[in-house]
Amino acid sequence: MSADIWLAQLHENGYRITRARGAVVGIVERSLRALTPVEVYDMARKKYRALGLVTVYRTLEKLEELHLIQRVHQPMGCQAFISAGHGHQHLLLCQNCGQVAFFEGDDLDILTKSIAKKTGYQISEHWLQLFGLCANCRTN
Amino acid sequence: MSADIWLAQLHENGYRITRARGAVVGIVERSLRALTPVEVYDMARKKYRALGLVTVYRTLEKLEELHLIQRVHQPMGCQAFISAGHGHQHLLLCQNCGQVAFFEGDDLDILTKSIAKKTGYQISEHWLQLFGLCANCRTN
DNA sequence: ATACTTATTGATAATGATTTTCATTAACAA
DNA sequence: TTGTTAATGAAAATCATTATCAATAAGTAT
Question: How far apart are CA B30 and CA B10, in angstroms?
């Protein structure tokens, strides 16, 4: 489905559509949790055995460049990627199963302005990430 | 000054006070910007030439464990450490000089609750980090 | 369809970051 | 001062990522 859109995006940006890229996109696009390059490699190789790990790295690089995926920072490590949210969104991570949810409703302007005043900084960006348990893991 | 307090903390927790640890603490405790292990190594070796990089890693590990320092996540990498804030504080990073400031005034409860309701997640933690230009870099 | 240009690929090697191993050294309690 | 043992630094091992390069296959032109 939407994997095709990702491939189309790659094509529109002058990149060729290959089996290797199809395999990587097929895995990453549908994943509900952040995946490391090796995880993508292992999963995608079930569909396309000849895939190389290096190609996974290169493909992830391009997907990130096109803002189709984004890196996820976690206490345990920062090398996992998840399908990117649209517009200005933040992440909500389940500490049990790793599932990622997005949310907007980002009213940090008041806070940001107050901090800017207090510190003298000119603030241009922010990172916000929430951690907890998803509905499913909460009940189990 | 406060470096002594850090060493005392180490001692209280059963760790020995050594020249190597003194050198590492001396650098990290006073730094206004986040430092990578190699940066700490290079700087600390000016005071204590025999210091090994491995010891830097091991010392940073212990300081983090005692919550005296914390890891700083940045777009360029996540291996730098900064002296930790007290209580519940967040980071404000200067994108030009790297200087780190802390701030509190963390009114995310309203946001957090609203997100929890919308998504069904039980939220237990959050990461907030602001980026911008410090007062000094802004004027130059 | 066919041929051609060139991006893409996978294997290998190289690099960089971090961890493990181990014999030697030095904290510090007795 | 001495003895126990944590801590150290050097070297090797491991893990993550990037560069190299000859072979391959996308996609355009024929």
Answer: 17
